[in-house]
Amino acid sequence: AGWSDSSQVSSPERDNETFNSGDSGQGDSRSMTPVDVPVTNPAATILPVHVYPLPQQMRVAFSAARTSNLAPGTLDQPIVFDLLLNNLGETFDLQLGRFNCPVNGTYVFIFHMLKLAVNVPLYVNLMKNEEVLVSAYANDGAPDHETASNHAILQLFQGDQIWLRLHRGAIYGSSWKYSTFSGYLLYQD
Amino acid sequence: AGWSDSSQVSSPERDNETFNSGDSGQGDSRSMTPVDVPVTNPAATILPVHVYPLPQQMRVAFSAARTSNLAPGTLDQPIVFDLLLNNLGETFDLQLGRFNCPVNGTYVFIFHMLKLAVNVPLYVNLMKNEEVLVSAYANDGAPDHETASNHAILQLFQGDQIWLRLHRGAIYGSSWKYSTFSGYLLYQD
Amino acid sequence: AGWSDSSQVSSPERDNETFNSGDSGQGDSRSMTPVDVPVTNPAATILPVHVYPLPQQMRVAFSAARTSNLAPGTLDQPIVFDLLLNNLGETFDLQLGRFNCPVNGTYVFIFHMLKLAVNVPLYVNLMKNEEVLVSAYANDGAPDHETASNHAILQLFQGDQIWLRLHRGAIYGSSWKYSTFSGYLLYQD
User: Which GO terms describe its cellular component (chains A, B, C) (predicted)?
Assistant: First the structure.
């Protein structure tokens, strides 16, 4: 899409026209298409100059939700998901509940997990491979729902895996999607 | 700003100097200004080469807050706002509480809503047009404040509307801005 | 990947031209390396054309956590941190708990603070210099943990300082990092 848009902007047919800034909103700022630039020498001969494209930053963003409860009853289970709101770059494995880092860079992660209305506190860990990055807790005096949530911004390397671990407790799932986990690439290295 | 910064980089006075990479940190990476590049042929004639700008990614970010309570008393009311921390791109309608998607792309949304200290649970839905994307819940054994929050990353199309629906309950507003709703464009298509 | 895709599409002349795609492939996707493009005029003289790099957007992202409790006992104390998950751009001062804005732009901030399990409510303010931007509250009928969290998207100017103020209450810290504060540059002006 970025290609076809920008190639219109940079097509040789356009080079003798005055630049139309209106076109510059159409394309993708992170890609650049070759520009054929006419060079007028004293003899007015046209010399095409080919400017080659910039490499485009990868686009990575996932957003997953649970539409059913998760109550494993054993400690330290991975939180898996059953619905994807978004999986740009196809990096998130719904069944494993794991994000597979496709390229080195700075990534943002955020999660919200609603506890079941039972008298057991909820402990959730955001994991990088087997390491606890950040954690969240939710409990209630009364057996009610409450949300455990947290976030992190991380430098990751290709092949790192980010996932949520249900240390203890049970998660409420419904079609209204109270329990969510998302992440995206902020800056590619 | 990006324009004037970059135009300094590409000013004709600079073209005979060796490239100073220190300059490349000054400007805005998402815009590119035309560069007049003198080409010295064997006869030392100056031939200008016009390199056309990259299309610039749109910049879209809003951040809204409530400074007064919202207690409609009827179900499924839109959550409107009375204060804007930011509205880059002028996409958020404060009175309607609606974000109007200006361009296809991947967007991030997040909200935090503090319930009034009353014995009614708070249910909030993040809506795309008339569809529930994700939801949040807050309640307390005691009639106290508690925050309902969630987030989503979505592929949207121009004209989509994102808004918060107060399904049930009442929201606490104050000049300290406990109840907020924000979103931004992560990747333009 | 972006590079090889584009180069296939965009270089019909690559068969007979000597262009080192390796050079453009190496760099950051948001920067551009100077390209010397040989131009053959009718007299077959080589005219080098210097295409100047795009200015690169600054990369700013921090993510901090507390691994020990914070219970100052006096109102309106800065929340300082003792662990950095990330400090891209070296903008966050751990000891002061302050983010120093290095360049004008649009920034995103988010925090999660878990209160100590004591019978004192937790009030946290996100501050810009000495101004309250947004706030968060957590309490419990029972003396239990609960998270105070909020976020904001802001237009900042170079030299602005963003920090968290513990208005009242006490924060729980542990090696599991329940209490976190992060921010990043979304769009550089």
Answer: cytoplasm; extracellular region; plasma membrane
- Condensed to tens digits (0 to 9), the pLDDT of residues B137-163 reads 999 867 899 999 999 999 999 999 999
Check CB contact under 8 Å for B37 and C49: yes
- The top-level CATH class assigned to B61-188 is mainly beta
Q: For residues A83 and A71, what is the distance between their CA atoms, to the nearest angstrom?
A: 17
Contacts of A13 by beta carbon, 8 Å cutoff, 6+ apart: none
Distance CA B27, CA C86 (A): 25
Three-state SS for A12? Answer: helix
Closest-CA residue of chain C to B151: C151
Could you write out the DSSP letters of every residue in B118-187? SSS-EEEEEEETTEEEEEEEE--SSS---EEEEEEEEEE-TT-EEEEEEEES-B---TT--EEEEEEEEE
Q: Which residue of A has its CA nearest to B125?
A: A176
Map residue B14 onto helix, strand or coil: helix
Which CA distances in Å does B172 have to A72, B36, B144, B166, B169? 36, 57, 11, 12, 10
Taking every pair of Cα atoms in chain B, the longest distance, rounded to a whole number of angstroms, is 87
In total, chain A counts a number of residues equal to 189
**How many contiguous H segments (helices) and E segments (strands) does chain B have?**
1, 13
Chains in contact with B, where contact requires at least 3 CB pairs less than 8 Å apart: A, C
pLDDT digits (tens, 9 = 90+) for A42-84: 455 555 555 555 567 899 999 999 999 999 989 999 999 999 9
Cα–Cα distance, A6 to B78 (Å, whole number):
39
**Could you tell me which residues are beta bridge partners of residue A114?**
A147
Tell me the nearest-neighbour CA distance from B74 into chain C, angstroms: 26
CA distance A116 to chain C (A): 16
At A4, is the secondary structure helix, strand, or coil? helix
Distance CA(B50)–CA(B34), nearest Å, equals 6
Burial of A98 (0-12, 13-18, 19+ CB in 10 A): middle
Q: CA of A11: how far to CAs of A50, B50, B55, B109, in Å?
A: 11, 13, 14, 37
Closest CA to B185 of B30, B23, B69, B18: B30
